[in-house]
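Holo prediction — nicotinamide-adenine-dinucleotide.
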Amino acid sequence: MEILVTGGAGFIGSHLCEKLLNAHHDVTALDNLSTGKYANVAHLKGDKKFNLVVGSILDKKLIDKLCEKTDVIFHLAAAVGVELIVKEPLESLTTNIKGSEIVLDMARRYNKKVLITSTSEIYGKNTSGPLKEEDDRILGSPLKSRWSYSTAKAVDEMLAYVYWKEKGLPTIIVRLFNTVGPRQTGSYGMVIPRFVAQALKNEPLTVYGDGAQSRCFLHVQDAVGALVKLMERPQGAVGGVFNVGSQEEVTIKDLAEKIIQLTHSSSQIVYIPYDKAYEEGFEDMQRRVPDIGKIQRLIGYEPTVSLEGILKSVITYFKGRNSE
Ligand SMILES: NC(=O)c1ccc[n+]([C@@H]2O[C@H](COP(=O)([O-])OP(=O)(O)OC[C@H]3O[C@@H](n4cnc5c(N)ncnc54)[C@H](O)[C@@H]3O)[C@@H](O)[C@H]2O)c1
């Protein structure tokens, strides 16, 4: 099959390209290399079935051409990460809303199946236990740029859903919860790579807020496995929305301590108030745990890598980079 992966030189996109190539598909990765990197896919360059196109999802003509020749589309390209969105709200909104609209519109022109990656940020401040796909979104003011990522991704979801309902375009929506693994960078506010880099340099680990907030982290291999299985599913996935995440919950303070222990670091933990780390009035969610019953029932999804396994894989990756 001929497959288009937007954001294919990004963290998750590059792992997805690898998995699809291993399954003998022809893969085109489209990426503007903003947060993605050529280095993430450099090892795929020798594969005749792989093609990297450097360009933007905002380029309608290019997307038209790529959609015409592909069989299915994984749409991952986006402005990602709270830090980036707070820093560049306008560009992020344009990429995430207009870009997705262009991809869906061109996919519709040639009736190509599209899977879009949304986010657990959709649920906003709803911390009411394991979150089900139909649960409420609870958000702060739209004037707080922190919520623009959630809002833009909600628009993407609505667009994907109405393209399916009204136009019959086969679309699948995946809400990824915190996904981690090799190649993720800490430069845009991603907590595990940031902590690991700090610990390996014996620098203080900077916990934002009081560290009592909890998250569940999923290994990238478990995430891309779910994306591929949903796309392959002949029935039950199209027109649906699915949480993809782990249920192994950890507070950010405990995470920092675990990373210090696993790296044998002499780092201390320092606490930085949210308004210093991000912006005045920044709001975070205290807890974010997915209910994964829906995808478990459909494809038998089960995360396979524990938090400790995830941390060890990120530490090994960073140590390898440091010795390059
Ligand atoms: N990593 C996570 O924990 C997580 C959680 C929830 C959702 N997601 C979603 O998964 C997807 C992939 O995220 P990621 O973590 O790999 O981040 P990433 O930043 O590594 O990937 C995004 C990719 O999109 C590319 N991109 C940005 N703007 C573009 C444009 N205009 N045209 C073409 N390419 C463009 C970037 O260069 C990058 O390679 C995103 O849609 C993100 O919202 C990720």
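READOUT: The first helix runs from residue 11 to 22.
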